[in-house]
Specification:
The structure is a single chain. This protein has seven helices and 19 strands. The chain is an alpha+beta fold and 367 residues long. Strands 7, 8, 9, 10, 11, 12, 13, 14 and 15 form a nine-stranded mixed sheet that branches. Strands 4-5-6-3-16-19-18-17 form an eight-stranded mixed sheet. The radius of gyration is 19 Å and the shape is globular. The protein starts with a helix and ends with a strand. The relative contact order is 0.20.
């Protein structure tokens, strides 16, 4: 009965979403409305939210050294460890890893929150491993490019990362967009894992605490065909579009994605942000295409046990009904299992789907 009621709610929601003026995913002020967006039956109702899909709770990041990978976020960013220990046999089997495989995890979160966390996972005896985005440039597609966080002092977090031997796409980059003054930098940790830091100097950001380093609120995926990718997230997953518009640098200067300065005013960054419900400042996925730059396709590497950002995990209240909805739209899970013991999530049914560029997004049955 519950599933039928939710499906009935979906029927109304599926008539469309409102064309919304939204803030830029980077935290900018109001921008142009999303294009080609259907009209909603009720404010904030989306196909995904009708099934109870909430903001993603954690990003799963495969690393070789749990402590080394977490140190910058904890020691410099003020994050805290929530749980740590061995991977369960059920989780190893869910990822289709060999029987010889084992592993451990370390789950960390910004202080006082339970969403936008990072679960660092180390896979042992699981076969060959390589970075998903080995020697990649931003315009190379496949593999999740970055986890996005906010900071009240991007320069200090950048300096701390460099002092640890990390690297970056650029030095902190200041720019204006949609009435907001922003500072952005992409810092790169072990195995090419990127963390994109955003500071909004004006107007102030007040939707959740920021401090030295906030909870993660978005993840960016570089794609070959942005309209196709956006359509998949909207029409298959049932997410709503927060932002969809092109951006080019207004002047030829160094920028936050390492596009050569003499090309920066001509290369269009076609970006869109989706999330399961509106409004909200968390649980986002961003898809971006560098129009005119043909990168490598790294999607074949975007699976565990390879190193890098494996996925983000969304809780779903009506999990079985949502899986039926996804299958009806041709989305067969790449990974799926029942009653998987995952510390801090519980014993859950869980599935992972690939988007058109091979990136994984996970959904699990929320209590």
């Amino acid at each position: 009965m519950r599933a039928r009621a939710l499906l009935a709610g979906l029927t109304g929601a599926a008539r469309g979403f409102a064309a919304l003026g939204a803030a830029l995913a980077l935290g900018a002020a109001a921008s142009a409305p999303a294009t080609n967006a259907p009209v909603p039956s009720a404010p904030g109702v989306t196909a995904a939210s009708a099934f109870g899909v909430g903001p993603w709770r954690e990003a799963v990041v495969s690393v070789a050294d749990l402590d080394k990978s977490a140190a910058w976020l904890i020691e410099d960013g003020g994050w805290q460890e929530v749980a740590a220990g061995p991977l369960s046999r059920a989780e190893i089997a869910y990822w289709k890893l060999p029987d010889t495989a084992a592993g451990a995890f370390r789950l960390i979160c910004a202080a006082g929150v339970e969403t936008g966390c990072i679960r660092f996972v180390r896979f042992d005896n699981a076969g060959p491993q390589r970075p998903i985005r080995l020697a990649a440039r931003p315009w190379d597609t496949g593999g999740i490019f970055s986890i996005m966080l906010r900071s009240e002092d991007v320069q200090a977090l950048f300096d701390a990362a460099i002092a640890r031997g990390w690297w970056a796409e650029s030095e902190p980059y200041r720019f204006a967009f949609g009435g907001s003054q922003l500072v952005n930098v992409v810092v790169q940790g072990p195995h090419g894992v990127n963390y994109a830091l955003y500071q909004r100097s004006a107007p102030p950001f007040t939707d959740f605490p920021v401090g030295r380093l906030s909870q993660a609120f978005n993840s960016m995926r570089m794609v070959k065909d942005q309209p196709r990718s956006l359509a998949w997230y909207r029409e298959v997953l049932g997410f709503a579009t927060l932002f969809d518009a092109p951006y080019t640098d207004p002047e030829p200067r160094p920028n936050n994605f390492s596009v050569p300065a003499n090309l920066a005013t001509g290369i269009v960054r076609q970006a869109a942000v989706v999330q399961p419900m509106l409004p909200g400042e968390t649980g986002r996925i961003e898809v971006m295409q560098f129009v005119g730059l043909a990168g490598r396709d790294l999607s074949a590497q975007a699976s565990p046990p390879n190193f890098g950002i494996i996925s983000v995990r969304y809780p779903v209240r009506a999990f079985a009904a949502y899986m039926a909805h996804l299958r009806a739209r041709g989305a067969a899970p790449a990974y799926q299992a029942q009653e998987v013991a995952i510390t801090a999530l519980g014993v859950v049914d869980i599935a992972a789907l690939r988007d058109p560029d091979g990136n994984l997004t996970e959904f699990y049955a929320a209590p």
